[in-house]
Amino acid sequence: MPLMAATINFDEALAELEQLQHTDLPSAITKLHELEADFEHMTRFQQGRLLVFKGTSFIYSGQYQEALDNLIQSENLVQNSDYLFSAYSYEATAYIALRNFKDAFVVMSKSLGLIDRIDNIDIKRAAYLRLASLYSAMGIKEEVGTYAAKALSLAAADNVKDICTAKLYLSVYQLELEIYDKAFDEFQNTHDFCESNGFPLISFIALKGMGESKLRLQEYTSAVALLLKALKGYESFNFQLEINSVHSLLAEAYFSLKQFANAVEHAKFVTSLPNEPSYTELKHNVFKVLAGLNAENKQFEQAYEYSKKEQYYNQLMFDEAKMKTLAYQAAKFNADEQAREINLLNKERELYIAQQTVKEREYTNMLMFITILVGGLFFLGILLAVGQMQKRKFMRMARMDALTGILNRGAGQELGENLFVQATARGGDFCVILFDLDFFKRINDSFGHGTGDWALKKVVDSLKSHIRNGDVFARIGGEEFALLLPYADEEKGMEVAEQCRARIEAIDTQHSGHKFVITASFGVSGLMADDLSLDPLFHRADMALYAAKANGRNTVVRYSDILKCDKQATDLRRHIASSSV
């Protein structure tokens, strides 16, 4: 074995392995296993490079903890080298997949700290691309475009792989900005360029982007064709995370085409995945599809169960977004704190010099010292004020619904629970109103999502002035809203709901550029003696809302005992629906 190892040029073998990871992943895995047998005969630096490649292969197969184990081990072997940046970057990718955003930002900060020390333009360009990838995974859109553009500006004509990757992230940037026509063109350009230059994996990723762009443009047949091609390509690379993502998108596309059997097939692929954080968004999408599919087939009980699962994963996504925001805020805050510490150290040095000079020029230098001190304190005060403003801004963003400007689901429910406890502790009443815009999908399908967004904002604007200061108004998802009325009984809730229904029906839609009617269905539930939290009130109001929908829509329904269980509510909805035909 030592004799065989001596004939191998490990540097050339590792360079070949690095190239294969971008062009032929199965061959790269085979090569990796071959080199692992000679691990003990390599130098420490070569061992570190091999562990970086091994960690990368685990990321491709979705084994993120194994990836972290190898990458952390590689740090001590590739110290003070450009591969240390790669180790940090891939560690951040694994932490993001495991939803450990705090540690992801820690290693990303280490990566950023290394960039200024990198003199090699090729490695610096690759570093910018890794940062674009990481910020894309964290959902920080602006940074994706910034670092991808920096990488492309450093690329020469023969840096084909990096040009491919930079073009891909610029395409992703357009997709995340929801400029779908431009995103499709960018992805197509990326696909053609990378395919013709021998980088199939990146071209398959671009194919998926083209398919997703067509899906968002509601060109479902084209989306299916592109996504199937991407799926076949991913399967040849065994790129499991992307394979799962394509199945989710195909379920959505086939459902929109009303090809329900195909939609179910791809949805079941995703639902069979383990309950890991990296699959949260995919499962949310397919349970939404399954809920819609069962509703289409009038299997309302099953649709309701899938809808509950969709809401569960939606809450997980909300919590994850909040965790990302808080981790990003903490990372920025720590960076600001370090800058402040440096400033304070500099001020202390200036103070020391001023004190030494004061012995020679007492009066003049004393005035200078006072000026410097006051200026430093004023500057520090400004930094602290800006930091507090930024902190309040991000906290407010985490609580508000970006489209309508009212509370989002999590913030509304949290505030409502607090008011509920206060009201019940004082012996007061409490009322919950849930309402849902009727046939909202028709507005989106007929006039576009821009008009749908206009309708949602118009409904909120028309109701804001009508709501008491102490009441809670929140958007709880899509076109569904909640009104929480502390110290109000069910009669008052019915009165408020009817007023809101009338105001919505009276909205003049001509200012949207189209002529249509907006109506809403309302469910009302008041406090009962054995209610210990808001959940029972929400549940009863939801059943009443379903009854309002089944009763012809554009109406207000108060919860009654006939709706006291899901089965009875479903029977009532079927009875009303059949009698209205």
UniProtKB/TrEMBL annotation:
Q: Name one GO molecular function term.
A: diguanylate cyclase activity
Alphabetical list of Pfam families matching this protein? GGDEF (PF00990)
Q: Which PROSITE patterns match?
A: GGDEF (PS50887)
Q: What's its EC?
A: 2.7.7.65
**GGDEF domain mapped to chain residues:** 428-561
> Which parts form a coiled-coil structure per UniProt?
290-355
Give the catalysed reaction(s), semicolon-separated: 2 GTP = 3',3'-c-di-GMP + 2 diphosphate
Which InterPro entries does the entry mention? Diguanylate_Cyclase, GGDEF_dom, Nucleotide_cyclase, Rev_trsase/Diguanyl_cyclase, TPR-like_helical_dom_sf, TPR_rpt
Where exactly are the transmembrane stretches of this chain? 366-387
User: What's the protein called, per UniProt?
Assistant: diguanylate cyclase
- Record keywords: Coiled coil, Membrane, Nucleotidyltransferase, Transferase, Transmembrane, Transmembrane helix
Q: Where is the signal peptide?
A: none
Q: Which organism is it from?
A: Shewanella scandinavica
